[in-house]
Amino acid sequence: MDYFLIWLSVSYSVILYSPLIAAQQFEYRYHICTDNSTYTVNSSFPSNLNATLSSLYENASRSDGFGSISVGKNSDRVFALFLCRGDDSPESCRRCIKTAREEIKIRCPNYKEAIIWYDRCMLRYSNRSIFSVTEESPKAWLWNMNDIGNAIDQNQFNSNLVGLMNQLITRAASSSNFFAMGDTNGTAYNRIYGTVQCTPDISPSECRKCLSGRVSDIPSCCSGKVGGNVLTPSCSIRFETYPFYTAPPAPLPPASSPSPPTPPPTSLNPSGERKASSRTVLYISVPTSAFAVLFFSICYYCYVHKKAKKENSAMKGGN
């Protein structure tokens, strides 16, 4: 494949405009139609391409945000894949791929190989196998129009940026989806936000190599700028001084262990001795009261019985 290097000065407040994408929520970045060959409308390639792009759209709701497929045979065979940004939801990924598949056919009509990037997804197809192959071209450079300015030490900014990118590369190369995002410490203009990502069909070492190459592009691409984006088919990096990705939710606090049972309430009398709780008093007073009632009942029974006996004796004596 011929090597393409695209220098683009893109203001992020006024992105390259297309009537088709004006009302869409996905930010168009760039596209490249490879000048190797074109197809004719009466061949099998366009129908295979449509089937391939439709299948990608149907599979774009996968949780890993990546998919690939091939349709057809021989010279009319189509290979295609998509990649959504690692922080994107399956629903948003599917909508982005829907937009990309419609736009790429308009921007690259009759081309047998093309690629298109949005801020949240990438889609590419070719008439050759593009699976599990690291490709660092064609390449697109985009940068923010705003300069770092005199308020910040540019050398310190660049040092912080490279440090952040290297940390993200290490995390991405060891993750399951080859994606990492994060920011540096600082406030306002001093804070830098970044993302790095590779297609998951290459090896961790190839991912690290591809991303490191994109970091080495920064001085040529985006020196003195507050933001930049380097895009290739197999990997990409982006940095800004504002949050452009979806931050993960804050972790929930650890569940607290159950409190031990509260002991029975106690109090101290004026002399400092402990008083038994009301429950203890109840246990003591109930048996004592029952004994007293029983004692007086027996005495009363004996008294009544003795009195009745005397009255019976008196009645017999009178007769």
Automatic annotation (TrEMBL):
It comes from Salix purpurea (Purple osier willow). PROSITE patterns: GNK2. PANTHER family: CYSTEINE-RICH RECEPTOR-LIKE PROTEIN KINASE 9-RELATED, CYSTEINE-RICH REPEAT SECRETORY PROTEIN. Residues 250-273 are annotated as: Disordered. The chain crosses the membrane at residues 281-303. Residues 250-267 have a biased composition (Pro residues). Residues 1-23 form the signal peptide. This is CYSTEINE-RICH RECEPTOR-LIKE PROTEIN KINASE 25. It comes from the Eukaryota. Residues 27-130, 139-244 form the Gnk2-homologous domain. Keywords: Kinase, Membrane, Receptor, Repeat, Signal, Transferase, Transmembrane, Transmembrane helix. Pfam families: Stress-antifung. The keyword Membrane applies. The keyword Signal applies. One of its GO terms (molecular function) is kinase activity. InterPro entries: GNK2, GNK2_sf. Gene3D superfamilies: Gnk2 domain, C-X8-C-X2-C motif.
